[in-house]
Amino acid sequence: MLLHDSPKKKVSFADDFGGNLVTIHCITEISEHLLEKSLLITYDPFPTKWLIKQASKGKQKTPFKNISRPNIPPRQIGFQQPSSDYLRFQKNLEKKNVALENVVLKSNPDRIFGTIKVKNLAYEKSVFVRVSFDKWQSNSDIQAVYKYSNSAMFDTFEFEFEIPPFRPNESHIEFAVCYECCNVEHWDSNNGNNYVIL
């Protein structure tokens, strides 16, 4: 039996040629372009139960194919992501003690997720989002939840709420964020314009 000499394989590393073994990228803010391309989900006004009901009536073999939908545009964020201009975001946070950081539209079920930064003025604090689905004829307060942060100066809070499945024509979602601390309310309402989801 003849054994053939196979060519020896050689492994080289970047540092053998003066390169780095590791490259570290620090991301200090969320890119609005990244959010638009990968995180924002379009709004689908038909809940899954309705689709399954249509399928059970025999109108569709599978509930998600060939369903005619009314001409309702997808939900969109109607403002620039606050942290996309990081210097302005930091300036607002210093001035108002609270600032909406970012918002993401999610689906299944349709909902809004976001983060809020607050200045750490005291240990006891409450952060919430005041939201209206009917042009402020009524509103609800959604409590934000503390998210661990290693910063001693600022705390981060997260919020999430569902979007009603059916909406009247031209109804926008409007909201503002509030930080209660030491019996004082600090508001970020997008300079009085509220944050709007179209």
Automatic annotation (TrEMBL):
Assigned GO CC terms: protein phosphatase type 1 complex
Record InterPro entries: CBM21_dom, CBM21_dom_sf, PP1_regulatory_subunit_3
Sample GO molecular function, one term: glycogen binding
Superkingdom, natural source: Eukaryota
PROSITE patterns, per database record: CBM21 (PS51159)
Pfam annotation, one family: CBM_21
Domain CBM21: 90-198
GO biological process, one term: regulation of glycogen biosynthetic process
Record's protein name: CBM21 domain-containing protein
Organism of origin: Acrobeloides nanus
